[in-house]
Amino acid sequence: MFLVVPMIVAALSYSVAAAEVFAGCFNPSVININAIFPRSYNTATITCPEVCRRLSSPQDTYAYSRISTVQPNTSLCWCTTVQPDAAHLIADSSCPYPNLSAELVRPPPNWGWYKCFDFLAQGPANNFTVQSLPECLTACSTYPNAYFSHLDNSNNMFCACYQRGPPFTTDQCGVGVYYHYYHSFGPSEFVKRRISGFEDGEQGRGLCPSGLSACRIKDGDDYSFECIDMETGLESCGGCIHGEVGTTGYHGEAVNCLTMPGIITNSVTCTKGRCNAFSCDEGHRLEYGRCVLVE
């Protein structure tokens, strides 16, 4: 099983503030655009999901939008409860015209989207079936990362919840590829009380499941952390990059394996707290699990 981060968030630092999440790019047949009244809006001042929210649309509304070919800086927006159909899914998150970009207008709180990840190429995901994207995000509410996928064109939808984010991502978010959603949430009052009661030098015991460490997501912030296995975590291998909750120091041995010189994505592992490369980029040679620059 692969484990991997919220966004400002390790590996890729992301920031969460979106009120809507991307649900995919679909060809125009995904909805009957002639039966739903389109709203024209200025893309410099408002978004399609915001247009839908101002119309007091239902909770499960999707906002479908595409660039207008008539006026510059203008797009057309369709607000509907019609859930995207995988039969019309396009494997390109840039969603070129005339395709429609679909966004879930009111997702469960504090979720954002960041590209996609091909689980199938990396081994099986611990997935389960769901009926919709909102159901997946709700089911993963206690995890920082959720993965949602149409594994085929028949609208079989699958979800997987993980502690950490993907080691790499792709913009080609088509059938069989998982959409990566990240969750930003503050600690509970219980967690806050525990952190406040730590003595200097005491580690964040009890904040994470056994075998995982409470690593800060950013320097000096004990209230923003993720649970990491420092023995196997690619982006925090051998320690916590920004220090462990409840401590004042940093783990000098902590390494982000993915940013080491000469490393090729998907060609490095973290084993027993040590980065081990098994392939190197051009201009580097492999020596004892490290990529060394060729002079």
UniProtKB/TrEMBL annotation:
Keyword Signal: yes
N-terminal signal peptide: 1-18
Keywords, comma-separated and alphabetical: Signal
Protein CPL1-like domain residues: 225-287
Sections of the chain in a coiled coil: none
Pfam families cross-referenced by the UniProt entry: CPL1-like (PF21671)
InterPro entries (UniProt xref): CPL1-like (IPR048661), PriA/CPL1_fungi (IPR038955)
Tree of life domain: Eukaryota
Protein's name in the database: Protein CPL1-like domain-containing protein
